[in-house]
Amino acid sequence: MKLKLILFAQVIYFVSFSQITPRINSIKVFSRGAEISRSENIKIKSGIDTLKITGLSPYLQDQTIHAKINGAQILNVKFGINYLKKQKDEPKLLKIKNQIKSVESDILDLKDQLSYLEVEYDLILSNKKISTEEIIDIEDVKDFVDYFQSKMPELIIKITDSKEQIKKFKKVKELLKKQESELQKVSTRKTGEIEILYASKQNRQSSIDLSYHVYRCGWSPLYNMRATNIGEPIKFEYNAQVFQNTGVNWNNCNLSIATGNPILGGNKPELYTWSIGEYNYSNGLRGKYDKSESLAYEDDSEDVYYGVASKLNEPKKVILTENLTFSSFEIPQKFSLNSGEGEKAVILLKRKLPADYQYYAVPKKSNGVFLIAQVTEWEKMPLIPGKSHIYFDETFVGKSYINPKVMSDTLDISLGQDQNILINRTKQEGKCSNNTNILGATKKRGYEINVKNNRNKAIKIQVIDQVPISKSNKIKVNTKLGEGWTINEETGMLEWNLEIPSGEKKSTTFEFEIKHPKKLNVPI
Question: How many domains does the chain fold into?
Answer without folding.
Answer: 3
